[in-house]
């Protein structure tokens, strides 16, 4: 499936099992790395981006909605809040990236 499939699998599994401390993001990353089949480096990238994808999506939604509802100031506030959420997700993204590295090494690939 490539990178896109691995990122999607990681993101969806983080929604389902991401609440489990440490183990949840790692398992989601392993599954994403296996689906991507791009080796250890590609698996890490897949898990890391999948871990940040929710924050990126939230930032886009908040920026657009803020801009529609309150103009430029609303868009700026939406972007700042979304960016803060991305910062909070970095730990989860690193754990998912480690899991992706493991999954990518298991699956092999390029």
How is this structure best described in words?
- This protein is an all-alpha fold and 110 residues long.
- The protein has one domain.
- Helices cover 89% and strands 0% of the residues.
- The chain is built from four helices and no strands.
- The protein has helices spanning 2-17, 23-36, 39-88, 90-107.
- Helix 2 (23-36) packs across helix 3.
- The longest helix is centred in the middle third of the chain and has 50 residues, at 39-88.
- The mean pLDDT is 94.
Topology diagram in text:
Blueprint: H1 2-17, H2 23-36, H3 39-88, H4 90-107
Helix pairs in contact: 1-2, 1-3, 2-3, 2-4, 3-4
Task: Sketch the topology as an H/E string, one letter per element.
Answer: HHHH
The total of helices stands at 4
Number of strands: 0
Domain unit count = 1
Strand content: under 5%
Shape verdict: elongated
Unreliable runs, pLDDT <50, ≥5 residues?
A: none
**Helix proportion:** over 70%
Q: Please compute the radius of gyration using only Cα atoms.
A: 15 Å
- Name the assembly state: single chain
Q: Pairing-aware structural class of the strands and helices?
A: mainly alpha
């Amino acid at each position: 499936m490539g990178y896109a499939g691995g990122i999607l699998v990681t993101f969806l599994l983080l929604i389902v099992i991401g609440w489990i401390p440490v183990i949840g993001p790692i398992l989601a990353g392993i599954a994403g790395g296996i689906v991507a089949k791009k080796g250890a480096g590609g698996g890490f990238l897949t898990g890391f981006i999948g871990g940040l994808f929710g924050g990126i999506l939230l930032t886009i939604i908040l920026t657009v909605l803020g801009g529609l509802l309150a103009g430029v100031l609303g868009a700026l506030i939406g972007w700042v809040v979304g960016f803060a959420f991305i910062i909070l997700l970095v730990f989860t993204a690193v754990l998912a990236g480690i899991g992706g590295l493991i999954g990518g090494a298991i699956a092999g690939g390029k």
